[in-house]
Amino acid sequence: MGEQEKVAGPIAEGIDRFKLDHETYFAIMYQANMVEWPEDQQNYTLIHREGTQGFEAGGVSDDAPWALMTATFQPLPGFPGGEYPAEAKDGRTEGMEGYNVYCGQQVGEAKSPGRGQGAADVAGIKIVGDVDPSDIVQGGVGDCWFLSGLSSLAEFDGAVLRLFRNTPGGIEGRPAAGPNSYTVTLWDCATWTEVDIVVDERLATPPGGGQGLLGCGPSVTGELWACYVEKAVAIHCGGWDKIDGGQCTHAWALLTGCKDLYTISEDSPGMYRCYGKYNPNEERWEPRANSPHDGYQALWNMPWPELGGGGESGEPIDTDDLFERLAAWDAGNYILAAGTKAGDDSDSTGGIVDGHAYSILTIARNAAGHDDIDLIKMRNPHGSGEIDSGEWDDDGPGWDRYPDVKAALNPEVKDDGIFWVSKSEFFQYFKTIYVCAKDMTAFKDD
């Protein structure tokens, strides 16, 4: 939930305030029988719309019933008869078996965002606004590998806009009142050629009539671009099960067509080696497929990327050297991500989810001029969930000890999935690093 604003005062006044400013407030909650109390003893809670991704009326007192009023937007008109026009359907949303099934269950009915169907009915709905890594909020599909890769790509605004460049009429001002469709341009990994995936506006919902969307949801500012890129990728790869689990490097192959993709893994305590899909014996790239579950699965020892120092295949480097290379790759506008230790993603260690992929957003080497302070800014694709009690968590002790570092990096005390870790914390929690060795400067919109 977003901010919960607790107010002492008459509940009737609070309801009026809520109704008059529903763009600010998502809901009002109060103890139901309190409306009969003297006004000077009444209170209520206003729940802010900003930051509210989902809402469950739980955690309130069991001593008395509670009342909850919410405000839902329908920014777009419904369709005649309530049915999506047959001529506007993409032929895949219903007609593709893999897209209709996830983990052996039939997915829920596809719904149109913003049309009062309970799917992304949010204020300020749009396809693209100010593209940001925080626009991505993972849903119920296990595709953190893809969404972390997409979140890292979102550092470069132009790269996201480029994915939609073949949409007839463009995406400015979308979604429009009539049925909408979007063309997402991805790479076919078998042929290394670009292909256009046309999707209609409908998005899958969870099995069994669950609330919200099956895949990722809209951003807190109502942006839908990530939802449609994810839908296109699910279709491109053969269905939801085909994108359940994977690697960030594969996400970048689909999104950028880059072959120079590296997986850097800890082979022994504190020592890392570089791997990839290039077969040195036959001097060729191993065959890929669109789904990370298909195609050649193993990795070969690879020479280290030239930027940052290079190095022979199989050459191990330590964490100090690897951090310096990370800083060089970040400065060179490479796309970066990291994976945690193997495990169940329902478990966590120190707030860091096991078996999970995170975006690397920024490397701060010698932060604010301190030779002994090296920091890394990370993002959880869940859109929430951060390190617990880290030296540099949102309100960690490091910021108080070094106010100049705080002024330079400006951390936000907010459960948005974005957090800072020290170099030692990074290598403690993250055992795999993913690198897309492509200079994205051309796609950076400052």
DSSP summary: helix tally: 10
Radius of gyration: 23 Å
CATH class of the largest domain: Alpha Beta
Any idea what the CATH architecture of the largest domain is? Alpha-Beta Complex
Helix-residue proportion: 10-25%
Report what the structure shows.
The chain has three domains: 4-70, no CATH class; 80-245, no CATH class; 250-443, Cathepsin B, Chain A, CATH 3.90.70.10. The chain is built from ten helices and 23 strands. It has helices spanning 11-20, 97-100, 144-153, 157-163, 225-237, 248-256, 319-331, 397-401, 403-409, 423-429, and strands at residues 4-8, 25-31, 43-48, 66-70, 101-102, 105-106, 108-111, 181-188, 193-200, 203-205, 261-268, 271-276, 278-279, 284-285, 300-301, 317-318, 335-340, 348-349, 352-353, 357-364, 375-379, 418-422, 430-436. The strands form seven sheets. Strands 11, 12, 15, 16, 17, 20, 21, 22 and 23 form a nine-stranded antiparallel sheet that branches. It has a four-stranded antiparallel sheet with strand order 1-3-2-4, covered by helices on one side. The two termini are 31 Å apart.
Helix-strand blueprint:
Elements (H helix, E strand, L loop, with lengths): L3 E5 L2 H10 L4 E7 L11 E6 L17 E5 L26 H4 E2 L2 E2 L1 E4 L32 H10 L3 H7 L17 E8 L4 E8 L2 E3 L19 H13 L10 H9 L4 E8 L2 E6 L1 E2 L4 E2 L14 E2 L15 E2 H13 L3 E6 L7 E2 L2 E2 L3 E8 L10 E5 L17 H5 L1 H7 L8 E5 H7 E7 L10
Antiparallel strand pairs: 1-3, 2-3, 2-4, 5-6, 7-10, 8-9, 11-12, 11-23, 12-15, 12-16, 13-14, 17-20, 17-23, 18-19, 20-21, 21-22
